[in-house]
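haha ok so turns out i had the wrong file open the whole time. this is the CORRECT one, sorry everyone. sequence first:
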Amino acid sequence: MRPRHRPSPLPNPEPTSSNWLDTPALCQALAVSRSTLTRWRRRGLLTSGHHWVRKNPACPRSDLLWHRHRCSALLRSNASPARLAMPKPDPSAATDYVLFHRDTGSALYTTRATEAEIHRANDNLTQAGQRSRFVAAKHLMHHRQPPAD
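then structure:
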């Protein structure tokens, strides 16, 4: 019986290639912090397969390899650090959310946040294997506001 071989969805870079760096090396080369790289990646400025790939594409928590020249080109094209900074959330765009446990249906936590923040939090909960999820409070009967007269 032949072993199954699944091709990786993205080309895996050669480990010896000098264009691909691990996270600490890229942070040092670009003079940015690890959290800045993470923020840019989550915002979509650094895209998978172009700016970064996983060392092991089969493992979703694998370390990342970064393309040095493509990442530095992004920095040069967006010369102003303010353009790369995370925009401040608009407080008026925030709504009430409730964290629910999926199995029991019990409310664990309530918060006020923007839709983007909740989407990111739910993605993080799913990746961590948690059995809870944020739900908009307006979708819950006991949290509904009475109609305005």
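The mean pLDDT is 75.
again sry for the mixup
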